[in-house]
Amino acid sequence: MNSILLLEDDLLLAETIEDYLSEYNFEIEICRSSAEVLKRCYEQNFDLYLFDINVPGIDGLDLLKLLRESEDETPAIFITSHKEVSALERGFAYGCQDYIKKPFDLDEMRIRIDAAIAHSRKSGENIVKFSPNTWFDLDSRAFYERNVPLKVPIKVIYLMELFLENPNQIVTREMIVQKLWSPMESPSFGSIRVYITKLKKIIGKDRIVNMKGLGYRFIIK
Questions:
Q1: Nearest partner of 62 among 39, 35, 29, judged by Cα
Q2: Does residue 124 or residue 19 have the better pLDDT?
Q3: Which pLDDT score, from 0 to 100, does residue 131 have?
Q4: Which segments of 53-108 are extended strands (E)?
Q5: What CATH number has the domain spanning 152-218?
Q6: 8 Å CB contact between 26 and 4
Q7: How many angstroms separate the CA atoms of 74 and 83, rounded?
Q8: What tens digit of pLDDT does each residue of 47-61 get?
Q9: Strand-pair partners of 79
């Protein structure tokens, strides 16, 4: 049974959502303010957050931002009547998976919830997290920050893959040259340092240790 923490100050709407989703084997906990959510999400793990944006106290957008800053990666969907693009941009920047505009169809809501939970579980198996907002997707071979793909030189991608193939082990400069350059290209150790620096800016400088005279070690936590 999947559990959902629902933030909705309209009690009639909240109970309607609860009654409907309960028929599909969801366990729903209703909160009517952000303060209640903060208390409950630290006491229990949920499979999904379903947050109305306009609620008493901290709004749903800033609430999700707080949760993400505390490394809470639970998938989230916003319920909103907002028409402004800026509100939706903030929601996705803070790490929501989807949104539903009022008035909405309950069947559509359930479909979006199922998709968000399924995607979250699948993604968790194929990504390497470096921070709550930054990760490398093994399937798409891309870095993401706040759900937005980063423009990264392909050799930085190759370098990341090489380190992931050799976690916590020394990766020599010769191994890097073989991975990053084809036999037709002319590699240089200066270029290696440039790509190492670019990678450190994405994943954190403490993740890559320079082993003097030997190469580099990627620290996976």
A1: 35
A2: 19
A3: 82
A4: 76-80, 98-101
A5: 1.10.10.10
A6: yes
A7: 25
A8: 999 999 988 889 999
A9: 52, 100
The full set of domain ranges for the chain reads: 2-125, 152-218
Q: DSSP assignment, residue 95?
A: T
Would the pTM of this model clear 0.70, i.e. be above it? no
* pLDDT value for 107: 94
Residue 90's alpha-carbon distances to 65, 141, 142, 177, in angstroms, are 9, 26, 22, 41
In this predicted structure, the answer to whether residue 122 has a pLDDT above a threshold of 70 is no
Residue 100 β-bridge partners: 79
List 80's β-bridge partners, or say none. 101
Of the candidates 129, 208, 127, the residue with the CA atom closest to the CA atom of residue 171: 208
CA–CA separation, 101 vs 115, rounded Å?
Answer: 17
What single string gives the DSSP state of each residue in 152-221?
Answer: --HHHHHHHHHHHHSTTSEEEHHHHHHHH--TTS---HHHHHHHHHHHHHHH-GGGEEEETTTEEEE---
Give the CATH H-level superfamily of domain 2-125: Response regulator (3.40.50.2300)
Mean pLDDT of 163-183: 93
Q: Say if CB 185 and CB 154 are below 8 A apart.
A: no
Residues 6+ apart with CB under 8 A from 12: none
pLDDT tens per residue, range 11-28: 999 999 999 999 999 999
d(CA 167, CA 90): 35
Residue 161's DSSP bridge partners are: none
pLDDT value at position 38? 92
> What pLDDT was estimated at residue 125?
61
What pLDDT does residue 4 have?
96
